[in-house]
Amino acid sequence: MHYLLLGFAPGLYWLWYFYKWDELEPEPKKLVFISYFLGILSAALVIFINVPFKLNYFVGAVITAPILEELAKFLMVWAYLYRNKNFSEPMDGIVYAAAVALGFASIENGLYLFRINQQAQSMLSNVILIRAIFSVPAHVLFSSVWGYALGRYKFDKKKNRFIVLYGLLLAMLLHGLFNFLCLIQIFSSFGLLILTAVMWMLINKKIRRAEKDSPYAPRSFLGWKKKRKIKEKK
Fold this sequence. Notes:
Elements: H1 2-6, H2 8-19, H3 29-50, H4 57-80, H5 91-119, H6 124-154, H7 162-183, H8 188-212, E1 219-220, E2 223-224
Antiparallel strand pairs: 1-2
């Protein structure tokens, strides 16, 4: 049981890490934790949907899992957070997507460690380290793609739904590619490092764009200036 709880530690750390990035107008901590638990609920939903089916492991990991998991996380944000009054700037799409993704990743990580402890205990320490560094934050990187798209869509006057569809499909593609690299043996480690680095750069770029487009961003005659921290939303 303690391995299941240990699986939550990286998720909670990354939740704190990504929350600190929302500097212009931080979201209410209570709502962020609610989002985290919605992510756990989305994982339960995916497990429930998968129960009746026995898919090929490769197909399940590379195709089915990325589609179902990103859809489940997206639906939680869309249904419970998108219309919340605190969702008031583009960056909030990334924040809530990240919180939901980390809730999902935490329960997935805990279950994975529990299974590894039962089947190959000698590998447990290595698996804990690798998943904490790569797999858990990877869920945030996938979901932040559609989270940014959702935040942009909400404050886009033209309401171009293709923005959200594109973000969701790109997140699924990145998720599938990540899982594929985890499964193959040849050059997989090198490929994971490159993919993870590219995703970090992509999300950093989207965060800067979201902050720049925020109505709370300090502005001057010359345009957007450096960030400033304001009081947390209640």
